[in-house]
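Sat 14:20. Reprocessing the chain from the morning session after the first attempt stalled halfway. Input below, unchanged.
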Amino acid sequence: MLANYKEILEKTKSRVVALGEDIIKAYNMTLDACEKDDPAPATEARSLLKDAHNRNNKIDNEILKTLALFSPEAKDLRVMIAYLKIASELSRIADYIRSFAKKVKMQISSELDLSPLKSDMHSFLESTRASLEAAVSAIEAETDEALENLYRKVNVEESKCDDIVSVLEKNIIQQICIDPEEAGEMVEFLKGMRKLERISDRSVNIVKLAYFAKKGGKLKL
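Finished this time. Tokens:
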């Protein structure tokens, strides 16, 4: 394959990783807003991700142009298709985090008491962060062993997120029974957690795509 193509491949990979790293940064900013009851980091997070769709589109266009110009062999084609799909997964994750950051800003200004849910929320948010960080790391994994370890880690964290959200759901129902006047806000909060739960699902997809790029085989998302 031409050297030019290899350079484009590396540049595409760098752009995908850079998008992933900015998404992690925005997520951490949003968690910082939660911990400090300060809406400023959440506002900054939304600003950081405002062009995530445009960045995804640029990656897509660059990949499609490269495929048209170079007609890569099967292995290289597999890698480019994987990057195309990973960028799309990251773009969707960016949407979830922007939505989460907006809800955090609203929550900070509301009088809804979430202290009974604090421990479970913390565990859930940390598992979500761990799954996202592992997924972005998988894009650059050099060895099969490293990739397999990241795949196992993401699956563990995704399972934990599912379990914790189920616990949160039960606790929220209990809170609504105690104070029915908070039902509307509590339901909105739960919907936000359910949407955020998809981050770990899409993180699993990203690692599967990274594995597909490296090893081939059947791809099931």
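The chain has a mean pLDDT of 89.
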